[in-house]
Amino acid sequence: MLTQAPKGTQDMLPKDSHRWHKIEDTMRRICATAGYREIRTPVFEHTELFQRGVGDTTDVVQKEMYTFTDKGNRSITLKPEGTAGAVRAMIEAHLYAEPLPQKMYYVSCPVFRYEKPQSGRLREHHQLGVEVFGAKDASVDAEIIRLAMDVLEGNGVHGLTLHINSIGCPECRSKYNEALKAFLEPKLEGMCETCKGRFTRNPMRILDCKEAKCKSLVQGAPAMLDMLCEECAEHFELLKKYLSVFNINYEVDKGIVRGLDYYTKTVFEIITKTPDGGELTVCGGGRYDGLVAQLGGPEMAGIGFGMGVERILMVQDMLGIAAQTPNLVDAFVVTMGLEARLVGEKLVRDLRLFGVKSDLDHCARSMKAQFKYADKLGARVVAVLAGDELERGIVKIRNMETHEEKEVLLSEAVSSIKQGVY
User: pTM (2 decimals)?
Assistant: First the structure.
């Protein structure tokens, strides 16, 4: 067990790190162009934050959270999603008093959920996401959807379909809940125990149940979209207009409710086709206009999305997409003997100071073996320091692609190697 990762987790190995960097760099670049700044919140928070924010009727809170009591007898939970922590940080730092909207993003945010591990869904995974506070207009709904699609397309995930819905505000949802309960009550005995408990507290959560018998029984249930108040209906129609401005095709999907209690009005999912003809959700999000106040802040609109890094990597693998593997080094210094190694260490240091990825042998290999190793590292240039060259104060430089060699003064080695590399 000591040499096996816990169930539902996986390592990011050095050979794959460039793929993660490409996804993260794409997220940073696209968000920066729209005025978003990065936020990082703790891996764990007080359990009450998620109970109040995510909702105690959700599967996340009821079944999936990693919760423990710390040495101070406090209930602590590893964060199961990114939004609640971002809201808490915004309130604690009084960011609501700064110019609005507050636009922020996070990259590779670790998220923990105790659920059955499956393809693209792990007990520890990492999310990319954005959160916007203080913007009520549907223009920001469309903006973050466009950002999400740009991030996915920037990582080679194309053929995306946007599904949108509105789940209303507390005013129209209370009326909807009554209609939904009237529909569900005759079917309640056939539902799972979890859904029976949701019936009184939050009947809409029943629509999100993954149990086959419950999914069957809710077929034909009334749709929230058909019972929106005037304000929510206008917001949804305006969203459609903004999506058209952004050239985003969409499908209205009355079945989307999302799995967290804090959502209001706009909810959405972005779906891609898999090579076998199936569909895979690669991003989800929506509005949470009441969450800031619910967690102790002022009345303030909010909206965001999240997408899993591991899910993007999985889709890339399905589609045969891979970021180009970078060379580990551009220049390699071959040495023979202690005196040459000392000079070589300084040369490598000088090259690195000038931004040249460079290295030398640390395993006492022969010169022939050092050349082979340099080739495996992808070095474009090899600089040779051995007895004869060292005595004459010169360095022999070889182009590893053309095999051309030249001799330069040691004092000119850095500039010559830079020219050979770039």
Answer: 0.91
SS3 assignment for 186-245 = HHHHHCCHHHHHHHHHCHHHHHHCCCHHHHHHCCCCCCHHHHCCHHHHHHHHHHHHHHHH
pLDDT, mean over the chain: 92
Give the percent of the chain with pLDDT over 90: 73
- Sequence-distant (6+) residues with CB within 8 A of 357 are 327, 328, 329, 330, 331
Q: Which fold has domain 14-169+229-319?
A: BirA Bifunctional Protein; domain 2 (3.30.930)
Map out the domains of the chain as residue ranges: 14-169+229-319, 331-421
Classify domain 331-421 at the CATH topology level: Rossmann fold (3.40.50)
76 with 68: CB under 8 angstroms? yes
Residue with tokens 């419950």: 214
Q: Which of 184, 316, 166 is nearest to 234 (CA)?
A: 166
Strands 250-252 and 160-166: parallel
Q: What is the DSSP string of 57-120?
A: TSHIIIII-EEEE-TTS-EEEE-SSSHHHHHHHHHHTTGGGSSS-EEEEEEEEEEE--S--BTT
Tell me whether the CATH fold assigned to 14-169+229-319 matches the one assigned to 331-421.
no
3-state secondary structure of 121: strand
Phi, psi of 258 (to 5 degrees): 65, 160
Q: Please write the tens of the pLDDT for every residue from 129-146.
A: 999 999 999 999 999 999
pLDDT higher than threshold 70 for residue 259 = no
